[in-house]
């Protein structure tokens, strides 16, 4: 496969030597679309490569994790992360949660310290708001705002509109580049064909590989045509497993034929469309490598399959090297060596940065791989830095963040996806909309969430009350359901309609099960038995219906963002119609493609 399939950024045509970082960022500009690597990019990369020691080459491939929080210059934490640049000479970072301005400020500060420009990456599956929001001020739960946050990716499968997927990518790219972020770890290309999957769930687009491919390619186009590298993940597919790879080695037992037609299909489509990066899966797929080695550490998967057979020429990034799927069996040092030997370019989030760099160097000295093999990966990283124009300008104008990040037009794109993707999966008794003919029903609104989810119920009850008037409201703590059960059942007897909103999800690093607690199932049964119309909405796992199959009305809003909460309320009030369809099955109750159509006012 030719290099033209590697769609990367070519912002600068001229080849110039590495320059010291400027101290004043340039004015905000719209990043250029990602284009194929040029000869100038390669010449610059090779000129830098020739100046690097073996250890500094290894350091370019190790990208530690940092928070995007406020850190004073004199603090121990700032001294720690600054040494990653000044002493260890890392090639880049993965930045996590923080407010937009703090992320931009910290990234600029690190760029100023670095001899070579840094590449900055982030998990941005649902937009920059997936990581860059200001959080909530406690104890008042005041939303401090931040970047645009779209519904979970499965909303794309429900709406099934490539334009909405493109818009998600485009907004993410514009906002992310404004913060100094160059690579998005998204879209998720895993086909979620196992409802018991404890880590992917609604992060996936669909259980249909064709829908996943079509929407995933659209997201990638939106990202890369607006200046940010897209990363398809988690290769070769994390959808059909019941093990959380953060906690243990997951296994996908599908045959090679099934993998080709389902799991690998979205990745092949993304590669053919020019996706710039791929992230690996720390799982065992015996049909691809029967030796028991996780895919991340397997040359058969990462080199023979991905690069040789599927033709991928871009940046190959490991999933977090802290995860049990690789380190429990091999340990940090051996896992790092095996990852490079397998063909990976970047070791993401190692437990110990310096140890990981030393391990990569030791791999060369031990003959595990050659210095020339290492140079291939370093060249890819350096080419990216030139393609992004970082050799000429690596800083972002912090004063420009507020003009771009969280802009009303960007939020409108998130609202459109939330509105178009709400699925009324079941409405056996015709309870939706709950407002008809001008009469305002008495409503009991129950918010079912964990105490740590400060966003749960911050928008939906208020939006619903706008159309029905004063409501009875109860909060049901998902970690201790029992104390509220009696009061909720009693309150149901005094109203016309009961609306239960669940914000409990399964996609966390500690999740091992999607099961709702028995007391929650019991209270739902009592509410349904009361004879009152009961509407169950899920802003978390779409598979909640499996735990309460008797729920007569079931709606899915694909995440607890303000946009999704607002859309759900508008559907119940009859202001917003429904036409989206389930992109997954909820066996044995519902099949993919089902959904109730309701007109809106």
Q: Please tell me the overall pLDDT.
A: 91
Low-confidence stretches: 1-23, 507-513
Task: Report, as a whole number of angstroms, the end-to-end distance.
Answer: 52 Å
The level 1 CATH classification of the largest domain is Alpha Beta
Helix content: 25-40%
Counting DSSP E segments of at least 2 residues, the number of strands comes to 21
Instruction: Label the structural class.
Output: alpha/beta
CATH topology tier name of the largest domain: TIM Barrel
- Please describe the biggest sheet, giving its number of strands, its sense, and whether it closes into a barrel: 7 strands, parallel
Shape: globular
Q: CATH superfamily name of the largest domain?
A: Glycoside hydrolase, family 3, N-terminal domain
Q: What's the gyration radius in Å?
A: 24 Å
The CATH architecture assignment of the largest domain turns out to be: Alpha-Beta Barrel
- Tally of separate domains: 2
Could you characterize the architecture of this molecule?
The protein has 601 residues and is of the alpha/beta class. It folds into two domains: 3-404, TIM Barrel (Alpha-Beta Barrel), CATH 3.20.20.300; 422-573, Rossmann fold, CATH 3.40.50.1700. The chain is built from 19 helices and 21 strands. The strands form six sheets. The chain has a seven-stranded parallel sheet with strand order 4-5-6-9-10-12-14. Strands 16-21-20-19-17-18 form a six-stranded mixed sheet, with helices on one face. Strands 1-2 form a two-stranded antiparallel sheet. A hairpin with a 4-residue loop joins strand 7 and strand 8 (142-143). Helix 2 (54-60) packs across helix 12 (353-365), helix 6 runs antiparallel to helix 15 (408-421) and helix 15 (408-421) packs across helix 19 (562-573). The longest helix is centred in the middle third of the chain and has 19 residues, at 324-342. The chain is globular, with a radius of gyration of 24 Å. The termini are far apart. Mean pLDDT is 91; it is low at 1-23 and 507-513.
């Amino acid at each position: 496969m030719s290099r033209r399939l590697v769609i990367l950024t070519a912002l600068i045509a001229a080849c110039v030597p590495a320059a010291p970082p400027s101290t004043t960022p340039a004015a905000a500009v719209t990043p250029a679309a990602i284009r194929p690597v040029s000869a100038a990019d390669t010449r610059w990369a090779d000129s830098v490569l020739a100046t690097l020691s073996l250890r500094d080459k290894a350091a370019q491939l190790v990208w530690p994790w940092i928070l995007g929080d406020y850190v004073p210059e004199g603090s121990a934490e700032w001294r720690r992360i600054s040494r990653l640049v000044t002493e260890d000479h890392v090639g880049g970072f993965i930045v996590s949660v923080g407010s937009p301005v703090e992320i931009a400020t910290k990234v600029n500060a690190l760029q100023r310290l670095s001899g070579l420009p840094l590449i900055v990456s982030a998990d941005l599956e649902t937009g920059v708001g997936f990581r860059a929001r200001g959080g909530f001020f406690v104890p008042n739960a005041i939303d401090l705002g931040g970047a645009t946050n779209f519904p979970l990716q499965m909303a794309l499968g429900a709406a099934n509109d490539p334009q909405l997927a493109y818009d998600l990518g485009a907004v993410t790219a514009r906002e992310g580049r404004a913060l100094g972020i160059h690579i998005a770890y998204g879209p998720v290309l895993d086909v979620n064909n196992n409802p018991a999957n404890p880590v992917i769930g609604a992060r996936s687009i669909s259980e249909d590989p064709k829908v996943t491919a079509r929407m995933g390619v659209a997201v990638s186009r939106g990202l890369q045509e607006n200046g940010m590298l897209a990363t398809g993940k988690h290769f070769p597919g994390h959808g059909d497993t019941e093990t959380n790879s953060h906690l243990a080695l997951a296994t996908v037992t599908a045959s090679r034929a099934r993998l080709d037609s389902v799991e690998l299909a979205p990745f092949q489509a993304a590669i053919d469309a020019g996706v710039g990066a791929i992230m690996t899966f720390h799982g065992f797929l015996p049909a691809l490598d029967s030796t028991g080695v996780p895919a991340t550490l397997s040359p058969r998967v990462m080199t023979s399959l991905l690069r040789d057979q599927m033709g991928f020429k871009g940046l190959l990034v490991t999933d977090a090297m802290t995860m049990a799927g690789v380190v429990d069996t091999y340990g940090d040092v051996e896992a790092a060596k095996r990852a490079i030997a397998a063909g990976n370019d970047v070791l993401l989030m190692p437990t110990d940065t310096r140890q990981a760099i030393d391990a990569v160097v030791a791999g060369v000295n031990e003959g595990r791989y050659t210095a020339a093999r290492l140079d291939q990966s370093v060249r890819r990283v350096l080419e990216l830095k030139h393609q992004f124009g970082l050799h000429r300008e690596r800083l972002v104008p912090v004063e420009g963040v507020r003009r771009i990040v969280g802009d009303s037009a960007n939020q409108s794109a998130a609202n459109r996806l939330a509105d178009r993707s709400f699925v009324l999966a079941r409405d056996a008794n015709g309870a939706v909309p709950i407002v008809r003919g001008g009469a305002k029903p008495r409503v009991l609104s129950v918010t079912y969430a964990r105490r740590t989810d400060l966003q749960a119920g911050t928008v939906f009850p208020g939006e619903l009350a706008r159309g029905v008037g004063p409501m009875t409201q109860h909060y049901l703590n998902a970690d201790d359901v029992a104390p509220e059960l009696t009061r909720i059942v009693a309150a149901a007897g005094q109203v016309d309609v009961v609306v239960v909103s669940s914000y409990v999800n399964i996609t966390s690093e500690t999740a091992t099960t999607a099961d709702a607690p028995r007391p929650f199932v019991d209270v739902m049964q009592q509410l349904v038995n009361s004879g009152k119309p009961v509407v169950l909405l899920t802003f978390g796992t779409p598979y909640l219906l499996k735990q309460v199959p008797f729920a007569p009305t079931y709606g899915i809003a694909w995440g607890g963002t303000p946009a999704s909460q607002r859309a759900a309320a508008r559907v119940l009030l009859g202001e917003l119609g429904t036409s989206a369809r389930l992109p997954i099955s909820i066996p044995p109750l519902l099949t993919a493609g089902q959904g109730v159509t309701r007109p809106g006012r």
